[in-house]
């Protein structure tokens, strides 16, 4: 929609231009969130796309023995610019050893918006909107990515992506802060993952998105999003038994109710999905290249 | 900035915060539509350098240097792209408002994308079709009506009527291969080529020089008196022309609801009131040069509210001492049952002796059901443009009118009724007002209201300037009336064999803050739902009450859908109790063609069985369900399967008069050049219901010509005779009948004129042909006749006699007992539409009705916070069905011919909606052993039925409990 109170658009060329940001001046990435709701408090926008951040950059590598007899493979990590579109991320080809690669597309499909929204909506914008159902939040948290924040005072700050979103539409950014990138470690990309999403309709806004990640060192983390106001991670030194996982999921304390599902249902179906994930990642299915995925 | 739109260079500067959608429309490319303005519906989809985007969330400045392609850039009438032609051939639209964006999106898909169509189309919402025809258009297939796998590129001979065994009267219309385009064929909508290329103008698709924009300030209070308003800052803002408040409002009370008889609805509304009765109510309006200025000025208005006690629950509203929503109203003057009890209307009546009927019953079932608020969600929001014109032409051509005329171009189902009421409100001579519609982008009952015309009329009369008022999508959720939520209590008694001995119905409807449609919905809801059954003892106690919630209004089915949900669920329970098949229970207890129709007394004599196809519908649906399909049950012990059915009856026309006048004229100008053409003038509006198509077919059949030679002018109070309006399913059986009568009248006139030329040949021996009349060797061209005189036929219909139509729906479902997911394995609807005028289009109406009803049954709910605030105010929080959400419904037609409708036709637009929710609830009951009593049957609600222990921690526990004995 037209943002009729916005009187200026500033194309940012370098970090200093971000000094314009404030309570009435917001950073603009793809625009799908900003232009999708009235923003009568805003008088200006600072365009981040003109900063020209490379969308996707392969980073430091991990040398991994993938199978007992196949030697070693160099597995790269990934730096995702905040301004990378969801479409770009969803199309990224797998690098060697990226067992977690299917998650990129799976999490893109968890976006409420259509593939046409993917063409403009950005990974960083999705995190910054900080909706419980933000699938890029799910993705970044599940891969134990770090976010790089450009603080208003010129300093840089890194923190776990899982801590970035603090509540329903709230996050750690203060006025003038900008999310710069999401840094995904190679160790997570080399992990086996299992993804589940449920909503009140087949492709509706997510009621719960759960992602399990079984690392090469057998550690397991279940990331629970969409049903909770912020990402919740359950960590285990190895795959837990069904009873333990069920008890821990049921013990999560930040389920919420909105038009996309009642809190009690979200808790219950998260238990169901968590168990499906646990079963899928059980060691009996050791072949890392083949694991069924998809919506419930 | 410079860019190209469809190859044409544009040099124009967008406002800094402008989105691409409105920028493109500023360049008069009206083919880019606004359905939501929030990136959810896809009606605004365009390509930017070949990449599809939702232009409403795309910053306009980013289009600099790009090539923008709209649907018009894909193809234009006469030169359609294949994807556009396939939408024409597959009847892949009804109102057509979503079509431009749908086709732009489809144009980017490749063959390999088709398997992923549900996901790829989730950002394109269609409220009319149910998507089957859209999927067919995109895939280039035609799915047969029985739902079996579609055949590729089967583009000729669309969808024959499935052959069934007729049981009742044979058809009177010819069953041999009909001439193309006449009744019984699947003619495409006359506007098809323009719709698929974005060239068919809707309400706001017009450039009006000097147009001002109106923005409305909404109440933040659920119930309050306005102590004072400060508007001086707003009025002083540069660009503001007028600030309108209750000080400017006419003092005349009216109802936003419109009916043939204006006394049907209570007069309880003012254009602006000094008391607000729901959050979101209009309290002031600003008229300004731009919408941005009008909105800014609205933010400068300060209002001092004196809060008043409010009531949000209809039960509470009836309790002694409850806050009174319209306590200030005079019951007689406003036509309210009892404003001192918040009671708008009530019905209490008994036929026979229900207590005795229950006492003699072997089996008694009783229960309570609750339906939710549903939003119509027509893709085109409410909107009006008004302006003044010099009064020289007053439509009668009898001389100069002094004074200017007010013109309203509006998105309405009822332009003639709007005309009447606006004249009354503003004390206008009827000749000084013209109301007309362009093609209307969907309605479903939501445009049987005055929601924009009144304030635009006031603004135009005040400023003398053209003024536009367009609802946002959030306005639709927070300002425009929703479907009435109802509590329905049903008690049934039956003897040993399952024969009903008593039927007792209780209805409590929450009509919200205003009484528009409150009496009508309550009475109609309690009518055919009850009269469908032959029961010696019946009782109805129905009440419709005010609360401080969003007003409720007219919605497809007009109350029947809600009450049928309760009655048909109770009958299903009875069938279980008796141990009888639910189809057989209906056969045993439904009225037959010789039975009286009884609610609390015998209906009629206007309501008759003009035809009867319920028996066929029951047979067709039951047979299809027994036949099954190859849809697999999902694997796992947590999936359980069930079947269910429900029946619905509806009168083919609203009661107490529904009027239509029509004329058909031989076009003298065109006769010589392009062959003989006719112009049909008819008042009813086209809003996706397809009446224009059927009217063309009716006229072509009567005049023995082809529909491409017929021009239809419609829904304009200046140009055309009166029409009550496009509601109550009247488009074919009332307006269509008037068109047919006019065409027949003209055919007689033409024969008479031919005889005047050839006195030796009697008038009845002439046969009409497309370009003339023939009698043996003699041929008279229509061109010759047109030279001599104006040849015109007229027709009228008054709806004095009404028939009934039937729909039976059946489902087979699988329910996931772990998550509450309901998966529809088979969906079947059998319909008694009389002689089907246009099989493919009628099928589309049924599919669309089923789709909307599945939305109601499983997904949709306008949620209020309990204090009057709507929390589902954007489309992404109000889930209407996507392609991914819907099964292909098998559609079967009974073979009947109605004695009242044109060529034996019956209406089939509201009714397909009505049996769907109870049929689905009954199937879920069969699957899980627990009866759902509350809509929507969302996954969380179904899960909670299965896991009642979860209720303790539930913030959204059901408000009603199953109460079966």
UniProtKB/TrEMBL annotation, chain A:
Residues 1-189 form the FAD-binding PCMH-type domain. SUPFAM superfamilies: FAD-binding/transporter-associated domain-like. One of its GO terms (molecular function) is oxidoreductase activity. PANTHER family: XANTHINE DEHYDROGENASE FAD-BINDING SUBUNIT XDHB-RELATED, XANTHINE DEHYDROGENASE SUBUNIT C-RELATED. This is FAD-binding molybdopterin dehydrogenase.
UniProtKB/TrEMBL annotation, chain B:
PROSITE patterns: 2FE2S_FER_1, 2FE2S_FER_2. It comes from the Bacteria. GO terms for molecular function: 2 iron, 2 sulfur cluster binding; iron ion binding; oxidoreductase activity. It holds the Pfam family MoCoBD_1. Residues 140-194 are annotated as: Disordered. SMART domains: Ald_Xan_dh_C (SM01008). Residues 1-74 form the 2Fe-2S ferredoxin-type domain. Residues 159-186 have a biased composition (Low complexity). Keywords: Iron, Metal-binding, Molybdenum, Oxidoreductase. Belongs to the xanthine dehydrogenase family. This is Aldehyde oxidase. It comes from Cryobacterium cryoconiti.
């Amino acid at each position: 929609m037209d943002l009729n109170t916005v009187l200026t658009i500033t194309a940012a060329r370098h970090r200093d231009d971000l000094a314009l940001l404030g309570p009435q001046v917001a950073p603009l990435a793809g625009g799908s969130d900003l232009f999708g709701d009235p923003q009568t408090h805003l008088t200006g926008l600072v365009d981040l796309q003109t900063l020209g951040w490379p969308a996707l950059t392969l980073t430091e590598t991990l040398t991994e023995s993938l199978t007992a007899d196949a030697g070693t493979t160099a597995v790269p990590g990934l730096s995702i610019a905040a301004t990378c579109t969801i479409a770009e991320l969803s199309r990224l080809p797998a690098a060697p050893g990226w067992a977690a690669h299917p998650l990129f597309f799976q999490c893109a499909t968890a976006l409420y918006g259509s593939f046409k929204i993917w063409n403009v909506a950005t990974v960083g914008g999705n995190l910054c909107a900080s909706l419980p159902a933000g699938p890029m939040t799910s993705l970044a948290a599940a891969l134990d990515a770090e976010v790089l924040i450009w603080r208003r005072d010129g300093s840089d700050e890194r923190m776990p992506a899982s801590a970035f979103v603090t509540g329903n539409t709230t996050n750690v950014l203060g006025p003038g802060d900008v999310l710069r990138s999401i840094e995904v470690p190679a160790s997570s990309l080399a992990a086996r993952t299992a993804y589940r999403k449920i909503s009140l309709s087949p492709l509706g806004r997510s009621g719960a998105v759960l992602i399990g990640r079984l690392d090469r060192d057998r550690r397991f983390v279940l990331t629970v999003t969409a049903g909770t106001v912020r990402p919740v991670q359950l960590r285990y030194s190895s795959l837990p038994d069904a009873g333990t996982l069920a008890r821990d999921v049921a013990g999560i304390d930040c389920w919420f109710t909105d038009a996309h599902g009642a809190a009690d249902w979200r808790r219950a179906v998260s238990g169901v999905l968590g168990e499906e994930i646990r079963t899928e990642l059980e060691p009996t299915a050791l072949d890392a290249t083949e694991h069924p995925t998809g919506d419930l | 900035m410079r860019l190209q739109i469809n190859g044409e260079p544009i040099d124009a500067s967008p406002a800094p915060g402008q989105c691409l959608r409105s920028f493109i429309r500023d360049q008069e490319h009206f083919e880019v539509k606004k359905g939501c303005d929030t990136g959810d519906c896809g009606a605004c989809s365009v390509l930017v350098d070949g990449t599809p985007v939702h232009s409403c969330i795309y910053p306009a400045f980013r289009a600099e240097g790009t090539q923008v392609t709209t649907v018009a850039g894909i193809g234009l009438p006469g030169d359609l792209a294949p994807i556009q032609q396939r939408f024409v051939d597959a009847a892949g639209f009804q109102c057509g408002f979503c079509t431009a964006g749908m086709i732009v999106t489809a144009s980017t898909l490749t063959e390999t994308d088709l398997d992923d169509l549900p996901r790829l189309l989730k950002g394109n919402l269609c409220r009319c079709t149910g998507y089957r025809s859209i999927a067919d258009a995109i895939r280039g297939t035609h799915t047969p009506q029985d739902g079996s796998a579609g055949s590729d590129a089967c583009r000729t001979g669309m969808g024959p009527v499935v052959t069934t065994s007729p049981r009742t009267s044979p058809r009177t219309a010819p069953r041999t291969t009909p001439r193309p385009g006449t009744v019984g064929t699947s003619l495409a909508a006359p506007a098809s080529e323009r719709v698929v290329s974005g060239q068919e103008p809707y309400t706001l698709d017009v450039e009006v020089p000097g147009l001002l924009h109106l923005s409305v300030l909404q109440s933040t209070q659920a119930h309050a008196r306005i102590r004072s308003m400060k508007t001086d800052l707003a009025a002083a803002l540069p660009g503001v022309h007028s600030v309108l408040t209750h000080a400017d409002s006419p003092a005349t009370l009216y109802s936003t609801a419109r009916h043939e008889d204006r006394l049907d609805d209570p007069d309880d509304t003012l254009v602006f009131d000094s008391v607000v009765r729901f959050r979101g109510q209009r309290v002031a309006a600003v008229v300004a040069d731009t919408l941005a200025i009008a909105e800014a000025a609205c933010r400068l208005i300060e209002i001092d509210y004196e809060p008043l006690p409010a009531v949000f629950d209809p039960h509470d509203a009836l309790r002694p001492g409850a806050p009174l929503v319209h306590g200030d109203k005079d019951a007689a003057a406003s036509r309210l049952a009892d404003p001192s009890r918040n009671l708008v209307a009530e019905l209490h009546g008994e036929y026979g002796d229900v207590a005795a009927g229950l006492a003699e019953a072997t089996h008694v079932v009783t229960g309570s059901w609750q339906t939710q608020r549903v939003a119509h969600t027509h893709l085109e929001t409410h909107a009006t443009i008004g302006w003044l014109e010099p009064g020289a032409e007053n439509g009668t051509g009898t001389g100069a009118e002094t004074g200017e005329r007010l013109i309203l171009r509006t998105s309405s189902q009822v332009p003639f009724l709007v005309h009447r009421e606006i004249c009354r409100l503003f004390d206008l001579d009827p000749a000084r007002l013209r109301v007309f519609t362009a093609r209307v982008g969907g309605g479903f009952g939501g445009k049987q209201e005055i929601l924009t015309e009144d304030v635009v009329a006031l603004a135009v009369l005040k400023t003398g300037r053209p003024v536009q008022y367009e609802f946002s999508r959030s306005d639709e959720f927070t300002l425009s009336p929703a479907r009435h939520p109802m509590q329905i209590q049903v008690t049934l008694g039956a003897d040993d064999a399952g024969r009903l001995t008593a039927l007792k119905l209780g209805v409590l409807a929450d009509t919200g803050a205003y009484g528009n449609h409150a009496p009508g919905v309550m009475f109609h809801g309690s009518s055919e739902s009850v009269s469908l059954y032959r029961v010696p003892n019946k009782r109805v106690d129905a009440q419709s009450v005010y609360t401080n919630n969003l007003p409720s209004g007219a919605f497809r089915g007009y109350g029947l859908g809600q009450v049928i949900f309760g009655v048909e669920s109770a009958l299903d329970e009875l069938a279980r109790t008796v141990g009888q098949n639910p189809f057989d229970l209906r056969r045993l207890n439904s009225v037959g063609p010789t039975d009286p129709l009884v609610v609390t007394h015998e209906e009629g004599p206007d309501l008759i069985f003009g035809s009867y196809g319920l028996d066929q519908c029951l047979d067709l649906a039951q047979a299809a369900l027994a036949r099954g399909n190859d849809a697999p049950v999902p694997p796992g012990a947590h999936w359980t399967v069930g079947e269910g059915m429900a029946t619905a009856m509806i009168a083919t026309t609203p009661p107490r008069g529904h009027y239509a006048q029509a004329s058909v004229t031989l076009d003298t100008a065109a006769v010589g050049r392009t062959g003989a053409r006719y112009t049909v003038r008819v008042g009813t509006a086209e809003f996706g219901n397809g009446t224009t198509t059927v009217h063309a077919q009716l006229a072509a059949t009567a005049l023995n010509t082809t529909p491409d030679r017929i021009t239809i002018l419609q829904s304009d109070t200046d140009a055309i005779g009166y029409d009550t309006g496009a509601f109550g399913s009247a488009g074919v059986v009332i307006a269509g009948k008037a068109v047919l009568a006019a065409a027949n009248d003209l055919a007689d006139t033409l024969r008479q004129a031919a005889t005047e030329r050839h006195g030796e040949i009697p008038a009845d021996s002439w046969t009409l042909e497309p370009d003339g009349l023939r009698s043996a060797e003699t041929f008279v061209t229509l061109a010759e006749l047109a030279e001599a005189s104006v040849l015109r036929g007229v027709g009228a219909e008054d709806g004095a006699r009404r028939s009934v139509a039937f729909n039976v729906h059946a489902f087979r479902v699988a329910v996931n007992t772990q998550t509450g997911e309901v998966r529809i394995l088979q969906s079947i609807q059998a319909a008694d539409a009389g002689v089907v005028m246009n099989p493919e289009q009628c099928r589309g109406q049924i599919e669309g009705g089923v789709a909307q009803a599945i939305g109601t049954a499983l997904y949709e709910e306008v949620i209020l916070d309990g204090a009057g605030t709507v929390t589902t105010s954007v489309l992404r929080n109000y889930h209407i069905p996507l392609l991914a959400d819907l099964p292909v419904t098998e559609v079967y037609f009974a073979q009947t011919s109605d004695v009242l409708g044109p060529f034996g036709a019956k209406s089939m637009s509201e009714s397909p909606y009505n049996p769907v929710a109870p049929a689905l609830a009954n199937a879920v009951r069969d699957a899980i052993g627990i009866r759902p009593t509350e809509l929507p049957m969302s996954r969380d609600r179904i899960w909670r039925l299965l896991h009642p222990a979860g209720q303790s921690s539930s913030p959204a526990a059901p408000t009603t409990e199953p109460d079966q004995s």
